[in-house]
Design brief:
313 residues; mainly alpha; two-stranded antiparallel sheet; 80% helix; 3% strand
């Protein structure tokens, strides 16, 4: 019992320090900035992911799956708004130079959100890119961000394949074990979703910031953030259901819903980054700047009345 109390106090202190960092690093302000950028990046991001997946999976099937998920998260009208935007920016019916410009615009648009995430996590972890590495660093960041976008597509492919296999198995086994199998496959589906989300956060924490951090520290932060994300998704859904921002804001309601969902989800991501920083320190680890970055140390200097008088003379 004494050991359990000791561990409880330790984890309570860990969360307490994370909350202190959450406030000090102005996470809600960073979340608002990310929500703004993501509104412009969401359609290009989803379009490129769907293009990637459509090479392996039917285009209509993946589009239906993506918008079913969006409908569950942000509601039918907001999901329809995103769908309309994607259809308008599609470059499939264009030709020549228009396609090249369109694809370039899509790549820049889809990666901007990850550049913003990188900058915010850099700030949280106390690192910053070297200014003299300007153009080279910018190209590397865009390539890395685009790789993550493509990686999201492949994660979705794996998730879709596994989900399809589970659905086929469950359809067969339900005829034999009607009660038990439904519960078992629901748990398996939830487990797969959790693993995919944890991998996504792990990749973001490991590769996106200009920092070097060990996988064992990333793993703890990614799992914690995935738990927060799943719980937060449910709570945000309840909030949207009871506050009904769509009816309150009229024609702009769909955009407001998207902004609110991204805002709260961004706060969860950055809280996870804060937790990862504190967890790394608590487990005798260290977050070091990468070869393109430097450590940022904040120094607080108190107001000196005597020094101010000397300057006035």
């Amino acid at each position: 019992m004494q050991v359990n109390i000791k561990y409880f106090k330790r984890y309570f202190s860990l969360i307490k320090e994370t909350l202190a960092g959450f406030s000090e690093d102005k996470i809600m302000k960073k979340s608002a900035a990310l929500a703004y950028y993501t509104v412009f990046s969401l359609a290009p991001l989803l379009l490129i992911i769907m293009w990637t997946v459509s090479f392996f999976y039917g285009e209509d099937a993946i589009e239906g799956r993506v918008f079913n998920e969006l409908t569950d998260i942000i509601g039918p009208s907001a999901a329809k708004q995103v769908q309309d935007i994607i259809q308008k920016i599609s470059v499939s019916e264009k030709s020549g130079i228009a396609i090249i410009i369109g694809i370039g615009t899509l790549i820049i648009g889809s990666t901007t959100v990850f550049i913003e995430i990188q900058d915010s996590i850099n700030s949280i972890w106390g690192v910053r890119a070297k200014p003299q590495k300007g153009l080279r660093k910018m190209i590397i960041d865009r390539m890395l961000s685009f790789s993550i976008v493509i990686g999201l597509g492949f994660l979705l492919i794996v998730s879709l394949i596994v989900s399809t296999v589970i659905e086929l198995l469950s359809s067969y086994l339900l005829t034999i074990f009607p009660d038990t199998i439904a519960i078992v496959f629901t748990i398996i589906n939830f487990g797969i979703t959790f693993i995919v989300i944890a991998i996504l956060f792990g990749v973001i924490f490991k590769f996106l910031p200009d920092a070097e951090i060990k996988w064992k520290h990333v793993r703890g932060g990614a799992i914690f953030t995935a738990i927060l994300f799943i719980v937060g998704k449910y709570l945000i859904g309840l909030y949207m259901q009871f506050t009904a921002p769509e009816s309150a804001y009229g024609a702009a309601g769909s955009i407001i819903i998207i902004l609110l969902w991204i805002y709260y989800t961004s706060a969860i991501l950055y809280f996870g980054a804060e937790f990862t920083k504190v967890y790394t320190k608590w487990t005798s680890g260290e977050i070091l700047p990468s070869r393109f970055a430097v450590r940022v140390i904040q120094t607080e200097i108190e107001h000196d009345v005597h020094q101010q008088d000397d300057l006035k003379r």
